[in-house]
Amino acid sequence: ELIVSEDGGRSWRGLSRVNDWGAPADLVQLGDGRLVCVYGYRVPPYGVRARISEDGGRSWGGEIVLREDGGSWDVGYPRIVETEPGRLLAVYYINLASDPVQVDGGVRHIAQTAFSPD
Fold first, then answer.
1. Would you call 66 exposed, middle or buried from its count of C-beta atoms within 10 A (0-12, 13-18, 19+)?
2. Rounded CA separation 64/38 (Å)
3. Phi and psi of 50, rounded to 5°?
4. pLDDT attached to residue 108
5. How would you write the chain as a 3-class SS string?
6. d(Cα 90, Cα 52) in Å, to the nearest integer?
7. Are strands 2-4 and 13-16 parallel, antiparallel or unpaired?
8. What was the pLDDT predicted at 43?
9. pLDDT category of residue 106 using cuts at 50, 70 and 90
10. Residues near 82 by beta carbon (within 8 Å), at least 6 away in sequence
11. For residue range 77-91, what is the model confidence (pLDDT) as tens digits?
12. Across the chain, what does the average pLDDT equal?
């Protein structure tokens, strides 16, 4: 959820809800002003997803599936950065359903996805 203060932090109100099943999340404002939110998707198919807002976070476009090959709900804690105009890099931890060493959904490891929001 996005929460906003318009009085220097004295009061707060809900602005929007990005999704129902993703957590935790990270947010970046692109050079062109859009917001991109990336988050672990913790229901099947497990993975990492993103959404874009073109109106300062008041509303969000459809989900962008960055990956959906997670081995369990324990995925996420992403960080996202715009590496150059129009190119994003998301870094997160994930376990894979295809991992030959199955430890509660696979061995956790750090992974990345580079993508364009367009």
1. buried
2. 9
3. -145, 160
4. 87
5. CEEECCCCCCCCEEEECCCCCEEEEEEEECCCCCEEEEEEECCCCCEEEEEEECCCCCCCCCCEEEECCECCCCCEEEEEEEEECCEEEEEEEECECCCCCCCCCCCCEEEEEEECCC
6. 14
7. antiparallel
8. 92
9. confident
10. 28, 30, 31, 88
11. 999 999 999 999 999
12. 91
The CA distance from 49 to 35, in Å, is 14
What pLDDT is stored for residue 21 in this prediction? 77
Locus of tokens 């996420």: 76
- φ, ψ for residue 112 (rounded to 5)? -145, 155
Residue with tokens 């105009």: 85
Both structure tokens of 91: 């870094």
Those residues whose C-beta lies under 8 Å from the C-beta of residue 46, and which sit 6 or more positions away, are 40, 68, 69, 70, 71, 72, 73, 75, 97, 105
> pLDDT value at position 89?
98
Tokens of 54: 């073109």
Q: CB–CB of 16/2 below 8 Å?
A: yes
Task: Write out pLDDT tens, residues 8-43.
Answer: 999 999 988 888 777 789 999 999 999 999 999 999
